[in-house]
Amino acid sequence: MRIPPPLQILTAVLALALIPVLRPAAAEPMAPEFVTVFSAGDAGYGSIRIPAVVLSRRGVLLAFAEGRATPADQAGNDLILRRSLDQGRTWGPIQIVQEDGAHSLNNPTVVTDDHTGRTFLIYQRIPSHLKERSAHIATGHEGPDIYRCLVTWSDDDGQTWTAPRDITRSAKREAQATTIASGPGIGIQLRHGPHAGRLIIPFNAGPYHLWNNYAVFSDDHGATWVAGDNVPGAFLPGPSGERRSQINEVQMAELGDGSVRLNSRPFAGHPVRKTSVSADGGRTWSPVTDVPEQPDPSCNASILRHTPPANGQPGLLLFSGPHGTRRSRGTVHLSRDDGATWPVQRRFWEGFFAYSVLVRLPDGTVGCLFEADDYHRLVFARIPLDWITSDDP
Questions:
Q1: What are phi and psi of 335, to 5 degrees?
Q2: Is 73 a known active-site residue?
Q3: Which of 55, 191, 246, 356 shows the greatest Cβ crowding within 10 Å of its Cβ?
């Protein structure tokens, strides 16, 4: 029997309705990508360590390190740089930013002033006859046995750098400090609150085992620098009753309300990261407390404000470091409550993993420059943010 045209149409519609709708599966986030930036032996350096990385205002990525003659913390270190014009996929040749003969230049810490476009590099000069544990490192601001703090800057995306300027009197406490160390890693510029625009460089100062954390900051785009107060609660009793500090190398990040949270390498106390918060732009601090979600083998690590506050939410805070009792298992942590808790932890590197520094790339990708392969390489990871947040509970 011939079906009339209207019934043919109805039959076809009903048949289509019975066909299951096939929706494409959600795309898997892109996995992290890795590229070697520095290797031991490059440019004649026996060892290359201590990463720092920053983005210029025009989007050029600058990766710094200490070029060392031998695998020692003080080995006539130069400060070296490679630049990337494509968000870390490829890198230009090694540049020597600063050198000082047999004297060691240590602890590169970088920050870009987004108002002026100037990129600052802060570091320390250690005389060739001194090591970090030397008993005769002097306090004060003058003399042959002191650590000095220097700053150099670039106005052309890291292509050229100024002669260094000595800011020891601003960064070092005259009567107390022997060793001083910026970072190492990155500084920050505040974007919210009453101190918006302030440049902040994280510091620690010795003597050895008696370290303090504090901030050195500038409210005039790096023309002058001021040291804030020490973080309270730094010291615990040692095994023989002596005082020992539970903090050392340190990084800082801005919180949603313009406060600042520091995250420090642990020494005394529980083997977890240490933290403190400043409500006045780094001038004073709350007492040191533990970060229980971040076990740490005593290694420098990184904290970064990735996403600014919006719609009443504080945004995203990230942390990277080794996870556990050894320098291995590179892990990125995520916090949605300004670092009060860290519920998301994603491991992106299984093997040896030591010092690391985070950077936010222009497209939102998370960059991480880290020490790998028993300090023989500095590797740059490009980690998609949705790869990290895909593990968000």
A1: -125, 135
A2: yes
A3: 356
